Amino acid sequence: MPPSARPSVLDVSLPDVSLLAAGVDAGSRDRLLGGLRKGVPDAARDAVRAIERELPVYVRPHDARYVQVLTISVERAIGHFVDLLGDPDLPSDAVTEHFRRIGAGEAGEGRGLEALQAAFRIGAGVAIRRLTEEAQRQDVSVTSTAVARVTQAVLGHIDRLAAAAAEGHAERAARQTGGVRARRRALLEGLLEPGTGPEDVRLLAADCEWPVPRTVAAVALSAPPGGRAPRPALPPDVLVGLHLDDPCLVVPDPDGPGRRRALETAMAGWDAAIGPTVPVARCALSLRLARQALLLAHDGVIAARRPIAVVDHIPMTLLGQSPELASLLVERKLRPLLRSPRRHARHKLAETFLACIESNFNANQVAARMDVHAQTVRHRLRQLEALFGEDLHDPAQRLEFHLALRAWIASGR
């Protein structure tokens, strides 16, 4: 925003020189103003020396240019106040913009405003002293009331310059934050792009100061149906892709101590699937598997609490990537059930078969899980044995039965 478009933080009415020279003629006031203007460079040098002495954290003796900018800034602050004493309607846009740039420069160097604000206060004290000394030197009567009012005016002037610096600091900090966010988004999108090479990753990571880890895991996210999930409170090194159509995260060193627990806490309120841990260059694979697992969970193929860990459901995740393969497996393994003339009983028998596999054929556990009587479970087991024969209890076929049953039940057929 150009200076003329901004409201001036100095747009206030300041007192004229009569504060220091009440009751004196116009010529005396003009001489006083002239003396004050001549003394501005000396006052600025005094203020800079006071800042260097009292605020060493703000001083950079190795940087002559910085000392020069500091001197010019102090001189402009004091000089503009003196000018306003002579003409309270004097425009202040130029000095306002100067101090906005000073604040922006501090933000650009990663410095806060504490030292700058302290420097303002030191400079204000020197300005007040030099103003009253000049009035006394010219033998102008200076009452305690006049000194108090001038002090108030100087402090008000300095506060407005500090406000201008704070505006510049905030604007620059916001731009920097936005820039870093944009660069981190570019890094995340690069990691998720198949074929992104290690050198590309290194350059993108260096651009946003992201330490390249040895391994990563991608996390697929979706808001729960009918609800809006809160923004996850994540560690700063996690790359966040909530702006994507299919939101996701990239988590560095996901197997580190406490990492999984922190993720689970942060993702409360989200449906989530954590992809396998992979080298950084294979991040796209981790996300593809995580998204596949999340889809299967939504379809009921994978039944697990959130977040889902893909490594705990690799067979179903792989099967879910090929509907044709899943259909073939269902047809081959469940053919006796699918051809049973008792169509209305197929679904209950399939659910019982699945529960038996997952409960090691313990009828009591299956009954508790399905909320039926154990005798009902045993009756259905006899029906399943009649359909599948010895294959029903064959450990070598259990995995294929499990996958086929999950896929068929989830299909809703």
Automatic annotation (TrEMBL):
Residues 36-191 form the PucR-like N-terminal domain. Pfam families: HTH_30, PucR-like_N. Residues 349-407 form the PucR C-terminal helix-turn-helix domain. This is PucR family transcriptional regulator.
